[in-house]
Design a protein that fits this description.
Elements: E1 2-6, H1 10-21, E2 27-32, H2 37-46, H3 49-52, E3 57-62, E4 73-76, H4 92-109, E5 114-117, H5 122-133, E6 140-142, H6 145-160, E7 167-168, E8 171-173, E9 180-182, E10 188-189, E11 192-193, H7 200-211, H8 213-221, H9 227-241, E12 246-255, E13 261-272, E14 275-279, H10 286-304
Helix pairs in contact: 1-2, 1-9, 4-5, 5-10, 6-7, 6-9
Length: about 300
């Protein structure tokens, strides 16, 4: 199975690294526009093989899409990350042009591929890729919910002082500082609602920390995060390539689900070899429904900014 990752920067290279050492794909191609950069990252990752014991073949290319031909999955991480104090939405001006061109180039050589969109603002970039290519909606998946849910589980684990892997929790809605919806009511510690153990005040802090999880790391690091984002993409790619049919919150095109149409937004999905195989419509309470509608309005508003690029 072949995976191409466009953008060999922090997130792209980390994703290639995780995919390789976990043996998720037999071949990984990294592509970047910076001369020699992807080649260097690929060689560095390949030199881990003997010490971490993997057999994935990793190669790097400078803007040569012919080397990406026949990819089963293409991950798009090309574009600029935010700096402290910025929102993801502020990246749209530069990243929209990059994502549109990259997506067109990718499809010339891998017309049947499934695209995983990572570049920010991710929900808007997922919508852009879908509208500009006309690909079926099951083949364009925005990665955000896997990461946000993993941050939510981390903050819950810290509050509970219990292992994150014993905690089940999901974030839906937009992948933005104010649009994420951590589903606290449904979060559990080995099947027991976390509300049994944590006060309302603590749960509200956990949800607030989750929503600004990316901004907090950007403030600490000077650029946005990459370890958890890279691992989250690899987790999603694993479910596609190995047809695991995991339930993962992903940004996908909704056509009536959750009362919304014509936007890409985070909802629980079954992810398998066909990409988005099902959108699960879970019951939300009135408060969650109102939050989802507000989040959808914000995501829809951002799509308006694409009008000039989508003509
Ligand atoms: N959806 C999510 O959950 C997350 C999204 N992101 C987003 O992912 C993107 C990448 O972040 P980082 O890897 O930290 O940035 P980075 O700056 O480390 O890497 C981006 C790479 O894209 C390359 N690039 C730019 N234009 C290109 C083009 N036309 N073709 C090929 N490569 C091109 C650059 O040369 C650079 O190496 C950002 O937009 C960031 O906001 C980051 C983390 C999580
Ligand atoms: O915060 C950012 O800009 C990058 C990102 O999407 C994340 O780490 O969640």
């Amino acid at each position: 199975m072949k995976v191409t990752i466009v953008g060999a920067g922090n997130v792209g290279a980390t994703c290639a690294d995780v995919i390789s050492y976990r043996g998720i794909a037999s071949e990984v191609v990294l592509l970047d526009i910076k001369e020699g950069f992807a080649e260097g990252k690929a060689l560095d990752i390949m030199q881990c093989a003997t010490n971490t014991g993997f057999n994935t073949h990793v190669s790097g290319v400078t803007n040569d899409y012919s080397k990406t031909a026949g990819s089963d999955v293409v991950v798009i991480t090309s574009g600029i990350p935010r700096k402290p104090g910025m929102t993801r939405e502020e990246l749209i001006g530069i990243n929209a042009g990059i994502v549109k061109t990259v997506t067109e180039n990718v499809l010339k050589y891998s017309p049947d591929t499934i695209i995983v969109m990572v570049s920010n603002p991710m929900d808007t970039m997922t919508y852009l890729a879908l509208k500009s290519t006309g690909l079926p909606k099951n083949r364009i998946i925005g990665m955000g919910g896997a990461l946000d849910s993993s941050r939510f589980r981390t903050y819950l684990s810290l509050a509970l002082d219990k292992p994150a892997n014993d905690i089940s929790a999901m974030v839906i809605g937009g992948h933005g500082d104010t649009t994420m919806i951590p589903l606290t009511r449904l979060a559990s510690y080995n099947g027991i609602p976390v509300t049994e153990f944590l006060s309302e005040e603590v749960l509200q802090k956990v949800a607030a920390d989750t929503m600004v999880g990316g901004a907090t790391l950007t403030g600490l690091l000077g650029t946005s995060a990459w370890y958890a984002p890279g691992a989250s993409v690899a987790f999603l790619v694993d479910s596609i390539l190995n047809d695991q049919k995991k339930m993962i919150a992903c940004s996908v095109y909704v056509d009536g689900e959750y009362g919304q149409k014509d936007i890409c937004i985070g909802v629980p999905c079954i992810i398998g070899k066909n990409g988005v195989e099902q959108i699960l419509e879970i019951h939300l309470n009135e408060e969650e429904k109102a939050l989802f509608a507000k989040s959808a309005d914000a995501v829809r508003g951002m799509n308006d900014a694409l009008k000039s690029i989508l003509v």
